[in-house]
Amino acid sequence: MNTLTFAIELAYWQQTTIRAIVGLVAVLIPAGTLVYLFLFKMMSFMQSRLGPMEAGPYGSLQLLAEVGKFLQKEDVIPRQADRVVFKAAPFVVLISTFLLVLVIPAGPDAIFIDIDTGIFLALAVSSISVIGILMAGWASSSKYSLLGGLRAAGQLIAYELPLVLAVMGVVIQAGTLNVQGIVMAQAEGEIFGYGGIGNPFIFTQFLGFLIFLVAVQAELTQPPFDMPVAESEIVTGYLTEYTGMRFLLFFIGEFATAGIFSALAATLFLGGWYLPGFDPSDNLFNVIGPLVLMGKVILVAFLIFWFRFTYPRFREDQLQTLAWKVLIPLSLINIVITGVLKVLV
Amino acid sequence: MSQVTSPQQLAYIAGQAADARVNIELETEGMTLNIGPQHPATHGTLRVIVRLDGERVVAAEPVMGYMHRGYEKLAEVRTYPQVTTLVNRIDWLGSFANEVPFILAAERLMEVEAPPRAKWIRTALFELSRIANVVLFLGDMGVQLGAITPVFLAFRDREFVLNQIESVTGGRFHPNFDRIGGLKDDLPKGWIEETKGVLDRIRSFCDEMETLVAGNEIFQSRTRGIGVIPADIGLSYGLSGANIRASGVDWDLRRDSDVGLAHGELDWKVWTHPDGDSFSRYWVRLQEVREACRMVEQCLDGIPAGPIMAKVPRIIKVPAGEAYVETENPLGVMGYYVVSKGDLVPYRVKIRSASFNNVSITPWLLKGVYVPDVISILASLYFILGDIDR
Q1: Among A227, A307, A311, B131, which is most exposed with the fewest C-beta within 10 angstroms?
Q2: Are strands B332-340 and B348-352 parallel, antiparallel or unpaired?
Q3: Domain ranges in chain B?
Q4: Which regions of chain A does DSSP assign to beta strands (E)?
Q5: How far does A315 lie from chain B, in Å, by closest CA?
Q6: Are B279 and B247 in contact (CB under 8 A)?
């Protein structure tokens, strides 16, 4: 069901072009917003400094300056590197990011592909980035990169499971794997007979939301789970040998994935594009839906980045202990409770 | 088979064994990793060669000397007042404290004594430079463990201390203010009140670090029980300062020796910790900053009136003899062994700096830990590269 419908019928190539541009915007705009809002500004305020102030009003154009800087830099490839793999790695990471954005709805019709196993696809493609990171770590032919790549692989695989299990609770409650269906289930649900604000799953799946946030933090390799890029230990892990454009691609991938995982969390737990007080089938949501979603993304991303700027990092074995001994049992308990209540209520 | 006794040879053989080590079940082999000399965590140019089995350290060896500047030799061609310019740069974060033991050694040789006012101001500046030094450690430890925020707060609040040091001495980092027989100048007007405000800031910074860093669960899980130094091992490696006090050894030269500073007349406490791990080293330093604040405050209240300079000749010629003076510097015990032949210049200056000994325990300490703990243990030992290599 491809529902990018327009008042006028467009040719296939026109639709494809529009989709490509919208996809690019949907990935880059949240990424840029997060970088400016949180990495540049919030972090600076938390650290009692101003952050970028010169480029544009309050440094809002600093991002463009940074991108320009990276584009000008020389593309250094280590002599002993596996050149093909080295060059391909950032694109593999970006592919996972771009595939993730496909299934996240920004309105009743504003969705790239509306498939019945949407959330399943999202969780599946999010693992592709592991391959890219492992490629980068291996191909750099640097010991620090290798350590970083291996750490990343172990970490991302360990945290894939709590991520999936945290989403399971939502899926059970909504009764569908379709992301649009999950949003509608929240929009049309009611809390103890009161349907004024729908039923955002954060109330019933609060444990799932927390587990999801922790797992996302680990998936994004952000503090307190940033061992793969731990700059004080292994320089910057798999990023050590990357410069210029390729580093920028990794950087975009990191923050775009942060934005998209926040959007996923907002969709699954906060009601997605739905704003209470309106009819969810209203065509209005195709216009304001993206803005509502963006607002919720910023809310979730604030939490993610707040942890990032405050916490020291775990050690590798402590991270695995947390995943296997705490998060996975907790999420299994969450699933059991959700399932029992689903059957009983 | 001949006996191998040389430590270098032993270390080499151990390294070869680690490299060639094959885990029969997993078919893994060791890897040698050079941490440094260019590495974000060593804040300077320390190089640690670690041999790894997976992420576990089999053998670690610190390589020093990348920053050797030959101060001991340079001191032999400088007159006594000129030497303070050199020794300022040994521990560059608490530089005034470097001058004090050298000046005290020279004073002992010349048999002059600074007037009481100079002693008290010296003590105040000595403790202020300790604050400026250790405050940075309190934030930097967070960075080494991945928390970026504390170090910015540390730089922010250290700035106020440096401002106070600058307004007295004229130098933020390298005061070069201590003179044989006293001090260069008296305190500027209004300095005492300003400094009291700064001390309040430092105290609130300490409270902040106690909750933000030391109270953090992740920080505790990363540092508690990691890098444990038993007291006897620490003493046999010549550890000093907060590193040995964190192992439960109640030894502080400010209290235990009288070298001519005003510490004996102040009311303060030597903090120790029984555990000897990274966390206790952090905790002891945190308490020491608080104690230093108390000491400076008492100094400010109790500075006696009088001259700041004793009667010394204009051209300083130190009579022949030898003197060794050590003080409890921010990083640990720092001592100067000055040999004079009655010239304008010292015949020989031997500098005993704390970080050299503190780092020398790393081969023993780093065995069997993980790579992330290498960084946290090195950070908790708290060395300054200039203090290692001189």
Answers
A1: A307
A2: antiparallel
A3: 7-63, 71-358+370-389
A4: none
A5: 6
A6: no
Q: Which residue of B has its CA nearest to A315?
A: B372
How far apart (Å, rounded) are the C-alpha atoms in residues B135 and B289?
A: 7
Q: What is the ipTM of this complex?
A: 0.74
Q: Are B365 and B332 in contact (CB under 8 A)?
A: no
Name the pTM for this structure: 0.81
Inter-chain CB proximity A315 and B152 less than 8 Å: no
For residue B153, which residues of chain A lie inside 8 Å, CB to CB? 47-48
Does A224 lie at the interface with B, CB-CB under 8 angstroms?
A: yes
Q: How far apart are CA B39 and CA B217, in angstroms?
A: 27
Partner residue opposite B41 with nearest CB, options A49, A232, A312: A232
Quickly count helices (H) and strands (E) in chain B: 16, 10
Residues of chain A with Cβ-Cβ distance to B55 below 8 Å are 147, 316
Q: What is the C-alpha to C-alpha distance for residues A275 and B36, in angstroms, rounded to an integer?
A: 54
Tokens describing residue B161: 């201390």
Contacts of A314 in chain B (CB under 8 A): 218, 221-222
Judge whether A237 is closer than 8 Å to chain B, CB to CB. Answer: no
CATH architecture of B71-358+370-389: Orthogonal Bundle (1.10)
Please name the residue of chain A whose CA is at the shortest distance from the CA of residue B214: A312
Which of B145, B205, B369, B376 has the most A C-beta neighbours within 10 Å, making it the best mutation to test the interface with A? B145
The answer to whether A296 and A266 have CB atoms below 8 angstroms apart is yes
Q: How do residues B264-278 score in pLDDT, each as one tens digit?
A: 888 888 888 888 888
Helix axes A143-174, A128-139, angle to 10 degrees: 180
- Tens place of pLDDT per residue across chain A (345 aa): 444 555 567 788 888 888 888 888 888 888 888 888 888 888 888 888 888 888 878 888 888 888 888 888 888 888 888 888 888 888 888 888 888 888 888 877 777 778 888 888 888 888 888 888 888 888 888 888 888 888 888 888 888 888 888 888 888 888 888 888 888 888 777 777 676 667 777 777 888 888 888 888 888 887 788 877 777 777 777 888 888 888 888 888 888 888 888 888 888 888 878 777 777 777 777 778 888 888 888 888 898 888 888 888 888 788 888 888 888 898 889 888 888 888 777
Round to whole Å and give the CA distance between A328 and A163.
Answer: 9
Residues B191 and B168 sit within 8 Å (Cβ to Cβ): yes
Q: What is the CA radius of gyration of chain B?
A: 22
Tokens representing residue A92 in the block: 């593999």
Q: What are phi and psi of A273, to 5 degrees?
A: -80, -5
Which candidate from A46, A223, A227 shows the least CB-CB separation from B372? Answer: A227
